[in-house]
Amino acid sequence: MTEVKIENADREAGKEFMPKFDSNGLLTAVVTNAETNTVLMVAMMDQLAIARTRETGIAHFHSRSRGRLWMKGETSGNTLTVKRILVDCDQDALILECEPAGPTCHTGASDCFYRELVDEGLKPKSD
């Protein structure tokens, strides 16, 4: 039990990057536009996605639907250049501040949050 407290203290206050993955080896990554702070998308990252993102400066994720590593924009060309990575207090979520090269959403929208829930349905978000 003491080891968990030490680990949590190290993770929460230390300087070492110790990502805390869930039981599937994943953590949540929120992607924002580095210039406007708009939330562009939310995705999952595993250890390989984090490593590849840090190596290349281009956002990589773990695609649950594809079951593999996925570079954002690998087919569309709409990559995300990572400017900064923020780590939350217990290291189980990241914010990737990025410069998008085109629309972020696969639908062609600038971001994946283009609708809002109103009453019982969805409508285009109002700015």
Automatic annotation (TrEMBL):
Protein EC: 3.5.4.19, 3.6.1.31
Taxonomic source organism: Allopontixanthobacter sediminis
Lineage: Bacteria, Pseudomonadati, Pseudomonadota, Alphaproteobacteria, Sphingomonadales
UniProt-recorded Gene Ontology molecular function terms: phosphoribosyl-AMP cyclohydrolase activity; phosphoribosyl-ATP diphosphatase activity
Record-annotated Phosphoribosyl-AMP cyclohydrolase domain positions: 41-114
Pathway: Amino-acid biosynthesis; L-histidine biosynthesis; L-histidine from 5-phospho-alpha-D-ribose 1-diphosphate: step 2/9; Amino-acid biosynthesis; L-histidine biosynthesis; L-histidine from 5-phospho-alpha-D-ribose 1-diphosphate: step 3/9
Keyword check for Hydrolase: yes
Keywords: Amino-acid biosynthesis, Histidine biosynthesis, Hydrolase
Homology family: In the N-terminal section; belongs to the PRA-CH family.
GO biological process: L-histidine biosynthetic process
InterPro entries: PRib_AMP_CycHydrolase_dom (IPR002496), PRib_AMP_CycHydrolase_sf (IPR038019)
Pfam families noted in UniProt: PRA-CH (PF01502)
Protein name, entry field: Histidine biosynthesis bifunctional protein HisIE
Reactions catalysed, as given in the entry: 1-(5-phospho-beta-D-ribosyl)-ATP + H2O = 1-(5-phospho-beta-D-ribosyl)-5'-AMP + diphosphate + H(+); 1-(5-phospho-beta-D-ribosyl)-5'-AMP + H2O = 1-(5-phospho-beta-D-ribosyl)-5-[(5-phospho-beta-D-ribosylamino)methylideneamino]imidazole-4-carboxamide
Gene: hisI
